[in-house]
């Protein structure tokens, strides 16, 4: 099997230091929506300067380089044991090169491992075997502040008058954005999963964050819900970093997964403006980054 450690290292560097084009475009468009000389416009301009500097100098976009979460789709016959070892080695090297801050802390002792590896869940690696000969690896770096304002609701929710339908979903998602205020480093991106159990629901809510900001949900009902959430979250007036204004979220992505009749969970993974996700595709000897 190929040794892709260096290629994984480049994936980490790219994710940590260069914001994806669709996210940067959405941030630039947002600047124009804010009042001249307002705190919200100033916050967005500072964010964009920081984004440019990070790319130019290959330094982290934010001091919190987040939890590394890898999604690996691999061809039949590849060893997940070897892929995991190579990914972990790349993460250690990326930490040495300061693309990543040492972030893995023992939850009981508080001791930092110093190299961003911990138990089998840190870094998080999801594996899925696929047809064909292509290896594709998505990497998301999920900041701690935005992860802290993620939320899970169990419908019905009488306090929010939210029933077990898409209107109920709308209500709880907007409540999560309202509760977050600027604490998740708005403008945020909402990854929403409807259904599943508590665990699979959160996994699905993060997976939906891998979508491009300007794509369209193939399900017409969910596409309409995404548009409504985007529009109504931006009417809450929270604004960039909580300074008020027009830009509270850059996008909303919704996925529905099957559930038990007894449960109706809605999970919201809130991603901050530092929406670091990059993809690597390996076909034969060719490695393509996006
Ligand atoms: S939430 Fe995001 S932008 Fe805010 S400190 Fe964490 S990683 Fe940085």
What does it look like?
By secondary structure, this protein is an alpha+beta fold. The chain has two domains: 5-15 and 61-143 and 276-289, Dihydrodipicolinate Reductase, domain 2 (2-Layer Sandwich), CATH 3.30.360; 145-271, no CATH class. It is built from eight helices and nine strands. It has helices at 5-17, 21-33, 39-57, 80-96, 144-148, 166-180, 198-207, 220-233, and strands at residues 67-75, 124-130, 135-142, 151-154, 188-195, 249-257, 265-271, 276-283, 286-289. The protein has a five-stranded mixed sheet with strand order 2-1-3-8-9. The two termini are 23 Å apart. The model has no long low-confidence stretch (mean pLDDT 97). The site of iron/sulfur cluster has 12 residues, from α5.
Short description:
This protein has helices spanning 5-17, 21-33, 39-57, 80-96, 144-148, 166-180, 198-207, 220-233, and strands at residues 67-75, 124-130, 135-142, 151-154, 188-195, 249-257, 265-271, 276-283, 286-289.
The number of strands is 9
> How much strand?
15-25%
* Run of helices and strands: HHHEHEEHEHEHHEEEE
The largest β sheet comes out as:
5 strands, mixed
Average residue pLDDT: 97
**Which molecules other than protein and nucleic acid are bound?**
iron/sulfur cluster
Overall 3D form: globular
Q: Which regions are unreliable across 5 or more consecutive residues at pLDDT < 50? A: none
**Residue share in helix:** 25-40%
Placed side by side, the strands forming the largest sheet appear as 2-1-3-8-9
The chain-level structural class is alpha+beta
């Amino acid at each position: 099997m190929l040794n892709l450690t260096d290629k994984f290292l480049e994936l980490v560097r790219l994710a940590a230091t260069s914001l994806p084009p669709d996210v940067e475009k959405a941030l630039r468009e947002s600047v124009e929506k804010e009042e001249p000389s307002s705190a919200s416009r100033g916050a967005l301009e500072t964010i964009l300067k920081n984004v440019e500097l990070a790319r130019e100098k290959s330094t982290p976009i934010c001091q919190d380089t987040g939890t590394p979460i890898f999604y690996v789709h691999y061809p039949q016959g590849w060893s997940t044991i070897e892929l995991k070892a190579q990914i972990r080695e790349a993460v250690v090297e990326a930490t040495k090169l300061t693309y990543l801050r040492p972030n893995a802390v023992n939850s009981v002792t508080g001791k930092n491992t110093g190299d961003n590896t911990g138990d089998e869940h840190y870094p998080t690696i999801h594996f899925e075997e696929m047809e064909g000969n292509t290896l594709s690896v998505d990497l998301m770096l999920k900041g701690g502040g935005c992860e802290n304002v993620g939320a899970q609701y169990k419908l019905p929710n009488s306090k929010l008058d939210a029933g077990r339908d898409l209107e109920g979903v709308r209500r709880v998602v907007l409540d999560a954005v309202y509760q977050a205020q600027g604490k998740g480093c708005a403008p945020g991106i909402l990854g929403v999963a409807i259904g599943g159990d508590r665990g699979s629901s959160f996994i699905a809510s993060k997976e939906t964050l891998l979508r491009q900001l300007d794509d369209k949900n193939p399900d017409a009902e969910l596409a309409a819900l995404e548009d409504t959430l985007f529009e109504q979250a931006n009417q809450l007036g929270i604004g960039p970093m909580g300074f008020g204004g027009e830009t509270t979220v850059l996008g909303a992505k919704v996925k529905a997964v099957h559930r038990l009749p007894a449960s109706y969970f809605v999970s919201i993974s809130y991603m901050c403006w530092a929406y670091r996700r990059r993809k690597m595709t390996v076909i034969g000897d060719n490695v393509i980054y996006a």
